[in-house]
Amino acid sequence: MTGPSDRLRPYMRGAEPTAGPLPSVPPGPFGGPVLDGEVVSDLSDDYPIGDSLDDEPLDASPLRPYQLTGGRTAPVDPTLAIEAQVVAIGDALALPQAVRFEHRDVVTAARAPVSVAELGALLRLHLQVVRVLVADLAAAGHLRVLRPQHSIAKDPAMIERVIRGLSAIS
Predict the structure, then answer these.
(1) How far apart, in whole angstroms, are the C-alpha atoms of residue 136 and residue 95?
(2) Which of 12, 6, 16, 15 minimizes the C-alpha distance to 25?
(3) Angle, to 10 degrees, between the axis of helix 127-140 and the axis of helix 116-123?
(4) Listed residue (137, 24, 35, 132) closest to 87, CA to CA
(5) Would you say 108 and 50 are in contact if contact means Cβ atoms under 8 Å apart?
């Protein structure tokens, strides 16, 4: 059973009850109350700091994509499609020290051929940001871009064969 003193804040325990209003306790340097020159808190030592925050997803700052691309919204190569495959030329450790960590992450993720769209999903970045980063790395010679053959996709005979193949499966 808890007594009345258990319901009091720690800095008020042991204080004599007064008939008037409680004395105001000025805030401490970090917003907590100060009593006799010491910052006091009503949090116990076994308070689970950070436990409830682990399950919450982190919000990405709206400024981050702007920072990643240096303010650019279009890649150096405007023909870079999201279905284009990219593969790293060399290792991320071989990149110059001046290269930012986002570029290193792209090169590391592109050790095996991967599409620009997959890079965006792997790195949890917006597709336009990934397009800008990939175009920068390709222009610097750190990535090789393998573009899809659009002439095949526009061929009506090829489209008919794909439709017949899909119909045969279902």
Answers:
(1) 13
(2) 12
(3) 110
(4) 137
(5) no
> What does the DSSP 8-state code read for residue 85?
E
Q: Is residue 145 within 8 Å of residue 86, measured between CB atoms?
A: yes
- Residue 108 burial (CB < 10 Å; 0-12/13-18/19+)? middle
Q: Is the pLDDT of residue 2 over 60?
A: no
**Per-residue DSSP letter, 41:** -
Strands (E) located in the chain? 34-35, 38-39, 85-88, 114-115, 143-146
Q: How far apart are CA 135 and CA 79, in angstroms?
A: 10
Q: What is the pLDDT of residues 62-115, one digit of tens each?
A: 446 656 666 666 666 778 888 899 998 876 567 666 667 777 888 888 889 999
In the chain, where the domains are located: 64-151
Average pLDDT over residues 157-166: 88
Listed residue (136, 121, 137) closest to 82, CA to CA:
121
**Contact criterion met (CB below 8 Å) for 132 and 69:** yes
Q: Which residues of 5-38 are buried (b: 16+ CB within 10 A; e: fewer)?
A: eeeeeebbeeeeeeeeeeeeeeeeeeeebebeee
